[in-house]
Amino acid sequence: MTMTSHDVVAVLGPADKTLVAEIIATGASQAELAEAFAWANNDEALVGEGRHLPTGRVAALVDLLRSDEEEPD
Question: Hey, where are the domains in the chain?
């Protein structure tokens, strides 16, 4: 099932409409977005737990989330 903007905001909190649209366009699930959000915000802890680096849609979502953080205001 494709996520809605409400699903994205439930995971990320308030987010830019463009970012929300890009996330929905990946076809990822809300669980994949939650995993990507965890990686984007605390990758050292996840690696320390021995988790494998994200791949596929989760990796694409991590890239989107990180690129959004790097954009100047």
Answer: 5-70
Q: How far is it, in rounded angstroms, from Cα 63 to Cα 33?
A: 11
CA angle (56, 66, 9) in 5-degree steps: 85
Dump pLDDT digits (tens) for 2-36. 899 999 999 999 999 999 999 999 999 999 999 99
- End-to-end alpha carbon distance in the chain: 33
Does an H or E element contain 64, and which? Answer: helix 56-70
Q: Which is nearest to 4 in space by CA: 33, 35, 40, 36?
A: 33
Distance between CA atoms of 50 and 60, rounded to whole angstroms?
21
